[in-house]
Design goal:
- The protein is an all-alpha fold.
- It has 19 helices and no strands.
Length: 438
């Protein structure tokens, strides 16, 4: 037996241990958080807005959110848009329906447990809270096995595939949104990871893509849009990546397009039912008005600046930029990745709330992690890394993970304000100034 398969199996086993630890740790944090909260809720804040779609449709069989908001939000957290009525006289919901679709299995399981355990079968009691969030956590962490396999299939060395997947999961702000899974970001990453895996397994040019596979890939693209509309900005990268794998036939493209548009159409249809008029945007009054100042701020500001609190994004972008200039074979893919990231920067930065309110780091860029990890992993794998450089990169990755877990601890314990009003020192030195003002 050759050494390569044995080495590959070793990295496979090590990475599975990492995923198991991440799963156990994430579930443990939710248990701890539930015990700390008097209301025993782990679906909190904006996550209630996403979940309200699933609860209202499946349990109330309507999209009248009045009772959902009263049930899901404590009075002190009632959202401002709860007072906004649509022309149909219904309470507005500004969140897309994608996460609610993913939450359906967890909600149904929670409903069954509630009925069997005699807990309130109201869609808000503890069985629902746990089953919905735990199912979303499981989906996301399981999808990181798919991402690992995808990176390996695309040609990333398995040690770097394991390393880049590990650091994306626990060395960035994604880890918080794996635990706070009711938000959109972990769900978006889950779908992207599945898409990358499917693309990595596409048959070569001489074989047709099965219609069901084309359709499913299109469905996942449509679901990405439903989860968070700005995820559509990943489309340039996904198109280049899929085109790099094979030459697509017209019928295959049309099948995928039908799946994407069919699922994406759920948004205007549900908004029509809610508003009584055709519209595409879920937000009733929020807008893109921050301009260049917001674009700079969303990346570099003390107020959740992406590169300030999550430096691994900068490292990934740097490696992706190197691939543009140093790897002819990766040029198109790297350009597409940089382009999609730039579109995210413009969209997130021009948003009026470019700091994204209560946020661990800048959560609006989390969905770019699989894309950047793939290109950066290919760049490192094909760079012929010397032993010294490999050790340096491994040390850097370990340091980034340690820093991220340290900052996350401060965030979870409210050692610095969650709305971004703290200084950079206030976050990075929180352990030295516990309880102080920054």
């Amino acid at each position: 037996m050759s050494d390569i398969p044995a080495t590959a199996r070793r990295y496979d086993r090590l990475y599975m241990v990492v995923l198991a630890l991440a799963l156990v740790g994430s579930l443990a944090v939710t248990v701890f958080a539930t015990k700390l909260r008097e209301d025993k809720r782990i679906i909190i804040g904006d996550a209630n807005g996403y979940y309200a779609w699933a609860r209202s449709v499946l349990l109330d069989h309507d999209i009248d959110f009045r009772n959902d908001y009263q049930l899901l939000y404590p009075p002190v957290q009632m959202p401002s848009y709860a007072t906004v009525l649509t022309p149909r006289g219904l309470v507005a919901n500004k969140y897309p329906v994608g996460i609610a679709i993913i939450e359906v299995p967890g909600l149904l399981l929670g409903h069954a447990v509630a009925l069997l355990s005699r807990s309130p079968a109201d869609g808000a009691s503890l069985p629902y809270q746990i089953s919905v969030i735990w199912s979303l956590i499981l989906y996301c962490i399981a999808s990181f096995y798919l991402l690992y396999r995808a990176l390996a299939n695309f040609g990333v060395d398995r040690r770097w595939a394991a390393g880049f997947c590990t650091i994306a999961l626990v060395g960035t702000n994604l880890i918080h949104y794996v635990v706070d899974a009711g938000m959109s970001h972990a769900g978006g990453v889950t779908v992207i990871n599945a898409l990358l895996f499917m693309i990595s397994r596409l048959p070569k040019n001489e074989r047709r893509v099965p219609h069901l596979l084309s359709l499913l890939m299109g469905v996942l693209v449509g679901l990405l849009f439903l989860i968070r509309n700005t995820n559509i900005l990943l489309l340039p990268f996904l198109i280049v990546l899929a085109g790099r794998q094979r030459r697509w036939r017209t019928a295959e493209v049309l099948t995928a397009l039908a799946g994407a548009l069919g699922v994406a159409a759920i948004q205007p249809v549900t908004l029509y039912l809610l508003w009584g008029q055709w519209r595409l945007s879920t937000y009733p009054s929020e807008h893109f008005s921050a301009g260049l100042k917001g674009v700079v701020g969303t990346l570099f500001s003390h107020r959740h600046g992406l590169f300030v609190y999550n430096p691994w994004y900068a490292a990934l972008l740097l490696l992706t930029g190197c691939a543009v200039f140093r790897r002819k074979a990766l040029f198109g893919l790297a350009i597409a990745a940089v382009g999609s990231f730039a579109l995210f920067a413009v969209a997130n930065g021009t948003w009026w709330c470019w700091w994204f309110d209560h946020s661990f780091g800048n959560r609006a860029f989390i969905e770019t992690l699989p894309m950047l990890s793939l290109v950066a992993g290919l760049e490192v794998s094909r760079n012929g890394m010397t032993r010294r450089n490999s050790i340096l990169l491994t040390v850097l990755m370990s340091a980034v993970i340690a820093l991220n877990l340290y900052l996350w601890s401060g965030y979870l314990t409210s050692a610095f304000p969650r709305d971004g009003s703290h200084s950079v020192a206030g976050a990075y030195l929180w352990l030295l100034h516990r309880g102080g003002r920054f």
